[in-house]
Amino acid sequence: MKRITVAAFALACIGQVAAQSLTELAKTAEGKPPVTWYESSPSEQIDKVLSAFNKKYPGVKVRHTRLIGGNELAVRGVQEMQARGYTGDVLTGGADHTWQLKERGYLESVNWAALGVPKALTPSPYIMATAASVYVVLWNTNKVSDAEAPKTWEEVLSPKWTNRMGSWVRAAAFSQLAATQGPDTALKQLQRYVALKPMLFKSTFPLAQAVGSGEVDLGIGFYHSTLPPMKAGAPIKMRALDVVPMHIIYSAISKNARNPEGARVLLAWLGSEAGALAYEDATGRGNPLLEKTKTAQFIIGKKLSEWPPEKSDELGALSEHYNKVLEAGAGR
Amino acid sequence: MRQGALRSAPWLSFGLLALLLYLVAVPLALLLVSSFKPTGLPLDAGWSLQNFDLVYGDAGFYTLLRNTLTFALGCTVCALAVGGVLAWLVERTDLPFRATARVMIALPMVLPPFLLAMGWVLLASPRTGWFNQLFKDALGLTQAPFNIYSMGGMIFVETLALVPSVYLILSNAFRNMDPALEEAAMTCGARWPQMVRRIFVPLLAPALVAAATYLLIVGFLVFDVPGTLGMPVGLFVVSSRIVYLATDQSGGTSAYGQIAAIAVTFLVLLLALAWSYRRMTRQTNRFVTVTGKGFRPRQLKLGGFKPFAVAAVMLYFVLAVLAPLGLLLWTSLTPYLAAISWEMAGKLTLAQHSSVLSNPRVGAAAWTSIWVSMLSATLVTALALLVAWTVLRARSLGQEARNLIDTLSFMPLAIPGTMIGMALIYVYLTLSFIPVYGTAWILVIAYVTVYLSFTSRTASASLIQLHPELDEAARTCGASPATTVRRIVLPLLLPALAGAWVWVVAHVMRELSTALLLQGDENVTLAVQLWSYWAGGEPSKAAAVGVWLVIVMTVITIVWQRLSARKDVVFGG
């Protein structure tokens, strides 16, 4: 009991210190140029996030630039650092993209604990988990009953789904499954999946629409990309499987940031419960490491499968191989 | 002065050469450097051939190449055939409602190809396609008669998208053909097939080759249609690989080095085509059709074939515009992507249009698109005229320099949009005293570069038909080169240049890959906004933007058509 009291007291102290520190940082940030935030969500969605942020920190201005994906984020970061010595203040992308920038020495080391960011979100001083793309199975309720819809990966790979399935054109779900199942098992699963002759889509957003329109009966997609047609009333349901592959989305502060104080305040807020919920409400992407998010609730009790950021190279090589297997075997 | 040669100011020709070197050679050089860099980023350390090894040492690449060749050749042949017949019908026959026909044929170029493809998925997908349902119900078929997810489907939809470009290149060439040749042939008893083979094809050769070259390269590089119709069923082409390398390559960054290594193949192919084109058009007199003698292009009386000709134009319009646009309209009214059904009819709503029209970002993007497209079109059309004039008429530069200008103006066609974007980012981050990075001006520079190929071919194909005696007559009367261009050349080329201008406006309005790569917070275009809705899981809003885009472009196309029609009156067309 005494130990718990001491720990609670220590946490409260840290929280108070962090709050004080954030207030000071916010004051310093107010006199500087807007924080530039490179991220991939539509600007309309980020407008809502920033509106919530500015309710708490009205003086800290943030300018969002939408980059189309993680690869572009990394390349833009490298190009800008090489040519002019600075890039976006806050960079949000996948583990492999942010790690690439870290390896080049373009990211700032941050004392996250001093900002009050939970330890679970910060696997390294350079990056902080802000959201995740979580794999789900989704189905058209006019074509597949809830009872028939798969609950395990084994059921997904059943031959009865031949010519009825669809997924992203990249085999990333299986690459991430390999983190817990092992590369050989995941490859065998992928080969069985390819034998089902799935339709392949450029991204999981058109896949979700195709499930909604009845073009495919069953899909392997993302939680956040399934939400828009579901919210619009499309006949779609989704569920997480027994093992949940996912990609954590990380944010980082760049070296030579124009407004590093503002960047710290923004990330500390995104790592808080209020910030994570605002981001999830706007983008559909929640932080599975913060238990109050809908995403965390959706996968509660499930085993998660993801490669850690420091193994990005291993994941990259595996993904290249798996993508070729999918491309070579797919097609109706 | 040699016959047909008109000395233009040397500074203008040298200035043009310098501008083209800056616009084209700089990105080209960065592309070549990229191909030899291990990371593909020009400023990174080290040199290597590994990108070429990764691309050309992969057996799978040759499967892609085979698919791509089938697709590109199929589109080229089909688009040339359909576009050629339509251009001939409109310009050389007494087809009724020609003005309307021009608008109907040109209009599809405004539809972003991925929306056209999406429309055709809803029409001819084996599972949910409306046409398939209709035919199955009407004929009692058990299997769907159409499958848009096939190589045939890809070629069909891409052909529909490319026909307006062919039409714009060929229509002016048809229009400028002297009827005396046809009349002479008919007097000698020649039949139509003979006339086509002996008169039309030889005289139209520059325009046909220009169109074929353009189509072939576009067929190699275009992604929208193969990505929407081929990828789902495992039909991958080279552009699928380029998009993969740019956006999905594992390891954390885009593989620009490999993209550049692929682009080198296109550059070689393009150089070969450009060389063939120059060789073929070396004797420019062979292609002259507009001389000092006035003429009124002969109009073939279609007689009993008139209803069939009208039906052909209508069929194209229905397939390329009405059907997919109808589906686009349908999608813009549905709350989510759905096939046509009575059940969905009850859920139609104007909410998407209302949301799009009240979004200030859409308004800002529309304004950016409008001014960027119009300014880019104006600049690139003027530049194309200057290129054509310098290459074909000016003698202030030597033959080699003029060949270089011709080749440089052609080369951007072979550079993928993503590579142009990457190169421009480097250029304008480095040349920070030109503050265009992150602004809409960088888009103008990109589009002037990207669309120079098409406009310079269009201008050259038309200028080659004008006899130099027109220039000489003006010169004899004491006109300066500038006055000659302004009073003689420009009015005669105006229909072709106006067509090229409209073509550029339409293509800039819908262009995506360069706009996405160069995107900052101040230069979002309507196409990017449309894509943003699409990629964000809101296809109905994307469709609503598409519908309004078509409406705006319809107005622009009608104005262009009116302009062309007025030139017909002035110049006896």
Count the E strands of chain B. 0
Based on CA inertia axes, which overall geometry of chain A fits?
A: globular
| CATH hierarchy: architecture of the largest domain in chain A | 3-Layer(aba) Sandwich
Task: Assess the beta-strand content of chain B as a share of residues.
Answer: under 5%
Order of helices and strands of chain A: HEHEHEHEHEHHEHEHEEHHHEH
Structural class assignment of chain B: mainly alpha
Write structural notes for this entry.
The complex is a heterodimer of chains A (332) and B (573). Chain A has two domains: 2-131 and 247-298, 3-Layer(aba) Sandwich (D-Maltodextrin-Binding Protein, domain 2); 133-246 and 302-329, Periplasmic binding protein-like II (D-Maltodextrin-Binding Protein, domain 2), CATH 3.40.190.10. Chain A contains 13 helices and ten strands. Chain A has helices at 2-30, 43-56, 70-84, 95-103, 153-156, 172-181, 183-194, 204-213, 223-231, 260-270, 273-283, 294-298, 312-329, and strands at residues 35-39, 62-66, 90-94, 128-140, 165-168, 199-201, 218-222, 236-239, 243-253, 303-305. In chain A, strands 1, 2, 3, 4, 5, 6, 7, 8, 9 and 10 form a ten-stranded mixed sheet that branches. Chain A starts with a helix and ends with a helix. The model of chain A is unreliable at 1-11 (pLDDT under 50). Chain B is built from 25 helices and no strands. The longest helix of chain B has 34 residues, at 59-92. The radius of gyration of chain B is 24 Å and the shape is globular. Chain B has helices at 10-35, 50-56, 59-92, 98-106, 113-124, 130-139, 151-175, 179-187, 192-221, 224-230, 238-248, 256-280, 306-333, 342-345, 351-357, 360-392, 399-410, 417-430, 440-450, 452-463, 468-476, 481-510, 513-517, 526-535, 539-571. Chain B has 573 residues and is mainly alpha-helical. At the A-B interface, helix 2, strand 2, helix 3, helix 4 and strand 6 of A face helix 11, helix 18 and helix 24 of B.
